[in-house]
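Obj.: predict assembly geometry.
Materials: sequence records (below).
Method: joint structure prediction, all chains together.
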Amino acid sequence: MLFNKIAIVGTGLIGGSIALALKEKQLARIVIGVSRHKESLILARKLGAIDSGSQDINIIKDADLVILATPVTTIIKSACRISKILKPECIICDVGSTKEQIVSKLTPLIPHFVGCHPLSGSEKKGIKNAFAGLFKNSLCILTPVKNTDNKALTKVKKLWVNLGAKVITMNPKFHDQVLSFVSHLPHLVSFALINSISPSYFRFSASSLKDTTRIAASDSGLWLDIFFSNRDNILRAAQIFEQRVSAIKEALAKKDKKLLRRILTKAKNNRKRLD
Amino acid sequence: MLFNKIAIVGTGLIGGSIALALKEKQLARIVIGVSRHKESLILARKLGAIDSGSQDINIIKDADLVILATPVTTIIKSACRISKILKPECIICDVGSTKEQIVSKLTPLIPHFVGCHPLSGSEKKGIKNAFAGLFKNSLCILTPVKNTDNKALTKVKKLWVNLGAKVITMNPKFHDQVLSFVSHLPHLVSFALINSISPSYFRFSASSLKDTTRIAASDSGLWLDIFFSNRDNILRAAQIFEQRVSAIKEALAKKDKKLLRRILTKAKNNRKRLD
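Observations (raw structure tokens):
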């Protein structure tokens, strides 16, 4: 067993999937869950994801590992609260989509904190959509800094590998910059795109609109948090995106076929490198 | 049999899939193919999509139905050429993604012309990706005008229903306006999005970027044609989209959480109506 007792704070899609995978792969003797939502805890128990659950954060006090799996701003708030009740040797990690704010606030506060970001979200949410295989073959970015405890880092890395993820490390600042482009910008674009189209046209749409806007159905609260916790990077990424849109518009307005062909060919070639 | 001899001009993804479906459902006694690309004809024959093929357009002269399945500008050029060699009672239809230009040019030229647009493209191209089920449960928009021959319209409608499509009719002008939003804008956005991101970041991407940019791998020539044949509508749609991007940027820049939450919630609710 990698851990004796693991506590998961936030038994939603990610937290619930971690819990299910921990049980399936027998990585902890006991898995407990904390959630503000009683129904979520009841369902998590029913699904066999957790051994017991509570709305009271105090149940985590003898855990060996605490995984914070709530939205970004709640992660910081919960961490501040639980830092006072943890066992001194307890390891804490999170699953937040942005890392600079979280890591800079929690590293001085919690000796064994390790910032993590499993890239395996979905537009779906809640324990009802959780499944043990969510992390299989996905990427998990760990963001250690100078003061990160090395033993904690090694154990957390082992945990994610055991959950099926490919683990890489990156500094929090670079993480937030990269993610502003590969994840936050696509979400921003998808929100803007669906809001550009009259719903009366929806019935004439094919797969192109469905695919490009799938993630626009993502949880608003979660994304509000992500947008505000990575504000500057996202604003910069959006600006670059606006320039690319302008370039297409200009080529079209000026009837510059050669230029537009060059832009479309570049897009096609870039997209092929993504597969 | 719905038709005796059907000629398909352009044996690519759409033309090839039509041919395969015609054969599978035995909707024509003979299916012939015309293509500029010899290999495409050879593969179409091998797959049983066509009975014979030629690079010479003259083989269509005794066909009862000609389906123009080439990119938009080529449709107009081919139609002008074949209008001189068709049997007088021959029906012609096309599968072009924009309709106003095509219908206004071809209706006076060809007595039995019917504009069609099956919404079942893909970022993949060529006969090698064709399959008989491509039109199953998809939408096919027919765009008859005042001078469209009614008997031809009825037969073409029957054809698409037999291919598995749900057929609706719309005037060409409205078609191009609707499609500029539900199809052409998502493509424009997808091209711009992938071109905004440094390929060195691609390895850190998850499904959100992949889904939103899947269609950026679409054929450049085909989309160049579509963009230029629906230029004004696309420029207008892009402008509205830019306003939606600006609105998100502004809410973020001004730290207006309430406004941003409203925008994201609207996007989420709109997207849910699309399913």
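Conclusions so far: The two ends of chain A are 36 Å apart (CA to CA).
To do: check interface contacts against the pulldown list.
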